[in-house]
Amino acid sequence: MTEPSHGVRLGVDVGQVRVGVSRSDPHGVLATPLVTLARDLTAAPDAVPTDLAQLAALVAEHEAVEVVVGLPVNLAGKHGPAAVGVKAYAGQLADVIAPVPVTLTDERMSTVVASRRLAERGVRGRRQRAVVDQAAAVEILQSWLDAQRRRTR
Fold it and tell me: Where in this chain does the record put each YqgF/RNase H-like domain (predicted)?
């Protein structure tokens, strides 16, 4: 039985307007919310968008060994326009944080699940919009961590 490599991982939920970020503990057991970043859609073509620069700073600050980005796959398992955008974003992120690897993982329904869990806790409306991206990033990273542990048993 091989153990997964230790180290903090960051989970990323890429949205049109915001980017939710979560982090794992060093042992890869638990994902927790970290921050929500505003997407920088106005950066010059030759400049690093501020959200990617902020993500790179978080990778350095937390000494992350990997970044797990949620890939929006539709219920039929197909990659639509949103997935194309996320793949491009993940590619840009990989360039900015190299040599730290960027891994894409199926995030089907993560925002729906996150919204439901927040609503169950009484977080609704404007308060929910402020944290749903972080909560979705937690769902993405926690699912990935759980799958890694199952694979190594």
Answer: 7-114
